[in-house]
Write a structure and sequence with these properties.
6 helices, mainly alpha
Length: 111
């Protein structure tokens, strides 16, 4: 296991490196070790991606929800939640998330 500083950017870089090498359990452990105030929407989003790659879809959805809570404009977290909803066959949630994605995209384009 690699040692990284408590800086979110360093943790993010190390977790991405581990995930890219297929060391999903190590990436997950590193991301789960982060506590507030270092916990960011981007770290939670990456945790969701790692959890999804590990097949832990419930944990992935939880991470995407938490990322959206910390950053309500994190459209990628919402998109990933939509994909998970479709995978689970939850068309109603996917439709709700489609609307949210459309609003976030429109807001982003307006800025």
């Amino acid at each position: 296991t690699s040692t990284v500083s408590a800086e979110p950017d360093a943790i993010m870089a190390e977790a991405r490196r581990l995930a890219d090498r297929g060391e999903l359990d190590a990436a997950q452990a590193l991301l789960l070790s982060v506590r507030p105030p270092a916990l960011t929407a981007e770290l939670l989003f990456l945790l969701g991606v790692v959890e999804a790659a590990r097949g832990e879809l419930g944990a992935a959805d939880d991470a995407f929800v938490r990322a959206s809570y910390l950053d309500p404009d994190h459209v990628d977290a919402v998109r990933h939640r939509r994909l998970l909803a479709l995978r689970r066959g939850d068309g109603a949630l996917a439709a709700d998330l489609d609307g949210r994605i459309a609003r976030l995209s429109a807001r982003r384009e307006a800025n």
